Amino acid sequence: MDTLQKEKNITLIKDVLRNYLLEKGFRNTPERYTILEEIYNMEHHFNVDDLYLLMMQKKYHVSKATIYNTIEIFLDAGLIRKHQFGEKTLTSSSYEKSYFDKQHDHLVIYKKDSDKEIEEIIEFCDPRIQGIKEAIEGAFGVKIDSHSLYFYGTKND
């Protein structure tokens, strides 16, 4: 993605956040926009500890509690999505930006002989899954808004 498009995307998500905060009656703080921008500059999944360390390295003065509270706001606003990959970490939830991303699924590869330590997460989109979704909608008379699909495994030798 080029720099100009990235700047336009950041402006758009900040507007989404501003409107959400206004609608919900939440305070409009600069820290929330800084955290959002840092998340949207990431190219990978993250957890709260990752984000907190990044913010500290960049000399932002933000507490871990602020990050936790802000993450909840971003989740509700649809700006990020939460994952439970089954990893054994202090903060077991992972997150990723979601506003511009289409639905995708995950292949979680654990390191061999480890206790659920993640080696790699591969994101994929298979059109056959869309067909399954449509079949389920027809069979049960529902409209599926989103889904999550995770495969877990280790690499073959």
Automatic annotation (TrEMBL):
Its main location: cytoplasm. The keyword Cell wall biogenesis/degradation does not apply. Pfam families: FUR. It comes from the Bacteria. Keywords: Cytoplasm, DNA-binding, Metal-binding, Repressor, Transcription, Transcription regulation, Zinc. It is found in: Cytoplasm. CDD domains: Fur_like (cd07153). SUPFAM superfamilies: Winged helix' DNA-binding domain. InterPro entries: FUR, Fur_C, WH-like_DNA-bd_sf, WH_DNA-bd_sf. The keyword Ribonucleoprotein does not apply. Homodimer. Belongs to the Fur family. This is Ferric uptake regulation protein.
